Amino acid sequence: MAESRDADINAQRLYAEFVKGIWKENPVFVMVLGMCPMMAVTNSAINAIAMGVSTAFVLIGSSLLVSLLRNLIPREVRISTYIIIIATFVTVVDFTLQAMVPAIHKELGAFISLIVVNCLILGRQEAFASRHPTRLALADAAGMALGFAFALLCLGATREILGSGSLFGRSLFGEHYEPWVIMILPPGGFIMLGLILLFFNWMRQRKTMRPAIAAEEVRR
Amino acid sequence: MNSNLLWIFISACLVNNFTLYYFLGLCPFFGVSGRLKTAFRLGLATIFVMVITSLCASFLNAFILPYAPYLKLISFIVVIASTVQFVEMVIRKLSPALFRALGIFLPLITTNCAILYLALTQTSKELSVVQGLVYAVGAGSGFTIALVLMAGLREEAELSSIPAVIKGTALNMIIAGLLSMAFMGFAGLFSAA
Amino acid sequence: MNQVNLTISAGQKEPGSFRLVFTLALAGMLSGLALAGAYQITKPIIDANKAEALRRGVFEVVPGSRRFTPVELVDGQEKVTAYATYDADGAFLGYALEGRSVGFADTIWLLWGYEPQRRRVTGMKVLDSRETPGLGDKIKKEKYPPFAGQFADLALEPMIIVVKDGREGNNEIDAITGATISSKAVAKAINDAAAKWLAHLPATPPPPDSAESQGSGGADEGERAGEGG
Fold first, then answer.
1. pLDDT tens digits, B112-153
2. What are phi and psi of A33, to 5 degrees?
3. Fewer CB in 10 Å around end: N or C, chain C?
4. Is residue C78 situated within a structural domain?
5. In this structure, is residue C109 part of a structural domain?
């Protein structure tokens, strides 16, 4: 368990930990974590954002707490403690949403509570927050949360545009647009995410093939 | 009452399949290797955990939660984690081979969204103890059916030649999408018409 | 990935099992405190939101109403709350009742208004539904297509009938194209509720002078204004 000392943390390190969660190690597109709530709430862009913000709050809050207490929590009961911490944050978010935006809360329903079993959050506590000082843990959590929200928004916006002909509730194509309804139904969620993953795979394949292609061209 | 129970079962199992309609239990759904036997046994273990969870949730709802509704989520999670721990111990004793085959997926049942969702909706729909049990068995069966179908399809897929770029999760997502579309055929099974 | 390891190793030398139990108990207690606090803060707001949503629903299904009084209807073991509505001057307008039935995807919950004098439905509002977006979902729409608007002055005897080619009788409603099942479910919800609860409505409506009827009606039980008959 290599612990980085506070003296070694400079702005560059912080930035690196933050940025990795957005693209290179994006929790959804690359690590394929946190699927469950993802697809049910991405049938519209606003739901996706609400879920992204809620998850961010829980992830950042619990990472902060876990990192602060990392030397006090005994190893044997660490998972249970993490779960208690996460569940507390999730319940608070649930109440807050219900009080402030009841319409969105009704749309998201039980999926807000399901944030607690989002493998992403527990995974980050176990893999990172419990082993690194607070500032790094915060950067990591913020980056992952942003990456997650970004992925949610991509999926949600695409599904809403194709499936409802609107974005954020505002109709884009007029009343007589015949929407591609399957996109906001469950199969659409699966297929859309599959296509996005396919795109990412293709991009990665091209990146690894590029040196080989360049070598070919040089030989010719 | 009977047709009500039948509706609850069929609805949870087929019409509103927990995995293919509500996107629950996806971690094991995509994670369990394409081996039919393991998938089926994991499904059975999940059904068992769901039934126990449903019973405990009914108990909690009736006696404890009316006094402290804000403890709902935490108490459900604790129940699920404890049940999974218990099932782990039982399986390790009764069948070490199965225990090894399931590997990491046994403790991961705890993070299976489907079980927690079951407890939460059982509460919000205010189902009775019997209705809750039927709901749990239906939901678990639906999950198992989806899991087994997926495992079978992936076994087939592995034997075919597939371009490398789509292999892996991308292909599994699309297969799941097609499965989900097929299950949409069950909608309207019990309706007013 | 992560291993959910919940076993408390009592046999290990350090840390002792007391420390483990203490940590968990402390975490649980702090969590409970935080949650109780959050609950206390948000509950009033949440209750106010629910009451507001109910008010809006009731006033929508009985047009012209400004106040309401909850009325509890009892049928054997089952209880249900109806809402007696009044206009701004306190004149009785009608009742708002709940209804539910199984639609295409899941249960549909709705609120509907009823005028006992003319025995007509005065309005319908879908509270909760999971119908197919773009198809069955249109039961929530008023103008395009004009589905919910059909309930503005609807006879319900002997029962509401769903037709497909245009209304003729005044107890008929036009189904939504491509959403026959959802449309029929809405009609069934009202028919069922009417058959079951209309007989239990009080012979004379309660007076609008209780605290709840000041336009900020609560969602809890109101006075029992008369059962049976």
1. 888 988 888 888 777 888 888 999 999 999 999 988 888 888
2. -115, 160
3. C
4. yes
5. yes
